[in-house]
Amino acid sequence: MRKRVLVTGGAGFLGSHLCERLLAAGDDVLCADNFFTGTRRNIAHLLDNKAFELLRHDITFPLYVEVDEIYNLACPASPIHYQFDPVQTTKTSVIGAINMLGLAKRVKAKILQASTSEVYGDPTVHPQREDYWGNVNPIGARSCYDEGKRCAETLMFDYVRQHNVQAKVARIFNTYGPRMHPSDGRVVSNFVVQALRGEPITLYGDGDQTRSFCYVDDLVDALVRMMATGRETVGPINVGNPNEFTIRGLAELVIELTGSKSRLVFQPLPADDPRQRRPDISKARAELDWAPKVELREGLMATIRYFDELLASNEKLHAIAAARTRS
Ligand code: NAD
Ligand code: UDP
Q: Binning pLDDT at 50, 70 and 90, where does residue 157 land?
């Protein structure tokens, strides 16, 4: 029988790729999104598919639908987006999780929570394993996201223990690829857009801080595998690419791959910016038989092609609008 799958945040970067993957697997997909950071453009190519349904909905309000599986991805994910309205960010993580867990309980659906490496805060253990409890500032600029996601994890485990809900928690590390928001301020989108426009590449701090970048297709594969596991797999499970790069190294690679003449400029490091981050993915290997396949170079080329086309089409639209204003 076809599965009915709800993807909250389905018009966002990760969500739109996940919807695509589920439709290709023959599922019926209900995408619920309030379009805070997601766009119709991300899912425009899915709208004619009879197995796809789009619902404008804010998950801080209850949702009554009949589904077999829920991927709870709704939440702004980049620092500038989640800090824009921090109270709403916490509400989305906490009240949103309660609403989605209530739905899962009522209709006996499986639920997968998109958690984050941010639950480790600025880690004192490297690489990060799932049994590390983290080093998180509870009152800082990133706390609405970090603590909101931590509380959502707590709720998942309490619903498992108290209500026997079949929940799964994936801790997602930095992921990149086509359909990232061009002005979300995240490092890959920023650097690629700056390089393509020939603008200076903004390194925050000394650029020696590290991150590990996972290509979106690999990430979606891990989420689908995790959902397919039985009741014994709750997680949390780290999903990300264990290859670690300095931010300066990333900037140099983007310049090389775009052939850009952009220069590097240094700007102050944002508050509570983690120094290093790399997932230990032994658990994902053992429990999901999963490891990322796409190298950074290859994933960046696909991302660069996407942004190149996006910027060209935006420029065309601006030119048409300017011509209309003149005439
Ligand atoms: P995104 O901003 O592109 O997508 C989030 C989507 O959620 C958007 O479409 C947005 O409009 C929607 N949304 C936000 N608040 C909502 C609400 N209250 N009700 C309904 N929809 C709402 O971000 P993304 O990178 O695709 O992230 C998806 C999920 O994965 C998030 O939960 C994020 O925390 C998690 N995650 C992402 C990364 C990453 O590197 N991309 C890393 C760790 C965790
Ligand atoms: N960063 C940077 N220049 C930018 C954007 C980000 O140097 O234009 C740095 C940022 O300070 C952080 C890293 O890149 O150290 C990753 O930032 P991002 O916002 O992508 O993700 P997160 O900090 O949540 O891992």
A: very high
